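Q: Convert this sequence to structure tokens.
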Amino acid sequence: MSNLLNKIFSGFQKITPGGGENSAIGVDVGTSAIKIVEIKRKGGKAVLETYGAIALGPYADMEAGRVTNLPIEKTVEALKEVLKQSDARGSDLALAVPIQSSLIFTIELPANIGADEIEAIVPTEARKYIPVPITEVSLDYFILPKKEASFEELNTDSATTVAESKINILVVATQNDAVAKARSVVSACGMSASFFEIEIFSSIRANFEHELSPVLLMDFGASRTKLSLVEFGMVKSYHTIDRGGADITNSISKSLSIPFQDAEKMKKDFGLFGSPYEKSLADIVKVHIDYIFSETNSVLLGYEKKYGRTVSKIIFTGGGALLKGLQETAADNFRAEMEMGHPFSKVGAPQFLDKVLATMGPEFAVALGLALRKLQ
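A:
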């Protein structure tokens, strides 16, 4: 078993003696790994207790880093192992719901409509966007903040238009089956769950401070890249690009005729900077990154046309954000400030871990975001 753990366990770090009512455990069950973070309230501040990650590939008899679709019993086995190895003490979890099990969209309603009317209208309007029976999903909605009128608008007839404009409502539909599966996993682990949350909301909580201008959060996952356009702390628009880190590793493996694990290591070691041993590596990786960035630019252009607002900053998060050379390549593709997410800056931790946590932060953003909400 120890040999298997060496292959699948990405590492863990116990910081302080854990457990108790003031602790919170966030669990991010991804397509290629499970990440957990436990934090504790101490002196009015969130303090990091432990974190850990475990690869799911071996639980599907595949290599670490592969995209999986595990049955519940295998997911339970992996979750129990990562909780044990990281020595997490709490028994009440907060779990992320994968975005592919959800639908996020905005609807427009007249500005003079009342709260009771909104509650009645949203399910009816939502039916137009949801491709499955409304009984198969759970709905939630948020009224998006209005853009303030500019000085020029206030001094023209358009001020009337601004006042009479429609309100935008963000609607979130989550498949009941996805939540039921998450509940089954928690129950089979002999634990309880405080709540389930769609992963992008957890990631936003972990990565954002007080940005008011439009910001793009790029979450580089194993199977897909998720784009969340956020304004005033709320998701204004969401898009998925069906390409992620595992696709890059697959291409390296096939192009260079090497095992998947060797390709994964080569990708992590050299990334877009290229390998001195394999000249074509950078080009193989770049094909995928160029595609992701091209799709992202289309999304940004569409957002600017629709809302008349320019994205001022792009925050990178997710395990794929750690790809070497990614930020440098992004600088040639986008006209915005770029920043690597640093979720662990929101919690206290020993100073000697600063560099490690800054490096690993993007990978644990969702799990930390969940724990932060639970602790609040």
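The chain has a mean pLDDT of 89.
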